[in-house]
Write a structure and sequence with these properties.
Length: 463
Amino acid sequence: MDDAMSLPAGFGAWVGENIGIIEGYIADGLSFQGYPYLAQMMQRAEFRKPVDVLVKECTREWIRFRSEKQTATPGDDKAAAKRISEIETAFKSFSIREVIREQIRHGLGYGIGHVWADVGDLGYGATDQEKPLRVNKTGMAKGALRRFANVEPIWTTPANYNADTPLRDDFYKPSVWWVQGSRVHSSRMKSMVPFPVSQMLAPAFNFGGLSLTQQLKTYVHNFLRLRNSVSSIAANFSKLVLLTDMFGNMATPQHADYGDINPGSLTGRANLLQSISDGQDTIVADKEKEDAKILATPLGGLNELLAQAMEAMASIPGIPLVKLFGIQPTGLNASSDGEIRVFYDEIAAWQADQIEPTLRWMFNLVQIHLWGDIDPDIDYEFVHLWQMDEKQAAEVEKLKADTDAVNIVSGKISPDEAREREATDDTSIYRNVNLTGPAPEKPDDDLDDGSMSGLLSKAEGEE
């Protein structure tokens, strides 16, 4: 390739025809920017704020553990509650919420985020972490989990991956990663790629994807350029114009005088008036030969230009303006509730798509660490960000109770089945109450139809 004579025929023509495509690919920011440059971009608030908003919203309400086993034995309920308490404590001790939060930040900021599990007494040598990790009771000993750690992608690069057979499951999926000289099997390090690229481009992106910062690059730079232009216009919205005798100064040589005016005095006069106008002092002009007036630049419409640029930045991550910039909607009956509801639904979908694989892997590792096996009756769910207030929840519960009453009277369900529905309803206000066993007897009809006043009257009578 160093010898021009060794190049194949037509190679130069091919380069000439396609160099524009390559230059456009780089100029448009479609190529991998490199981790050092992406790290610098994360130093700017315009790039960092969308990433931080998504990170915080995805982990704000976090998860809720639950038991999938329905039993009428109170002892089983206590055992399930104990296990849930144990795994909640373990999640806090291993800082799983914080580790997931950092993985999301790496995934959005660099295109890929890694979580490594320190399992067993393995060292950190070149091949100590190369052995596969089987997440089951035979592949991992009880109490073997030591910690979870985030690994920034700048310290990683693929060591082995299949690039031969697309029909295999591991096609273009690294089986082993280099982590600063240590070979780490992929089963020990879970990766998150929020915005994957084509397999053809995966090696160029270090088997990561497009970072959110790279996708925001054009929009942020446009906003910064517009913001600086608006700032310059606002700082120089008015100009002082000096009307004086310019004919002599333009028609005569620089060293010649024209009456009382020469180039030096003209420059000094202009500087004097500029300093006076900046201080808002009195401007003095010659009545016969000079005049002064101020030209002001209209500032209307500049705020709309900035607002449009900010909306363009918010459209890429899909974050409402009130969440990203704190801008409240204006106008009659203006509200951002609809946008926030859509945003929360997007967060729920993002949690299931991106966080769930890593979190499920960590959840299983913690169970084996605690109990030596995976309990199929213990599970978790993400808590949705959109929640009803107490009044709305009470109204919904009242509608459910009325529906159950109608169904019981009509014979569709029994009281015990209604209680079972309450026990399995995650949004019920009685979800923490043990509703197993037969339903209580209905109060006497003569006690004001079972109302609270009738029950109080009965209690007073018994006293």
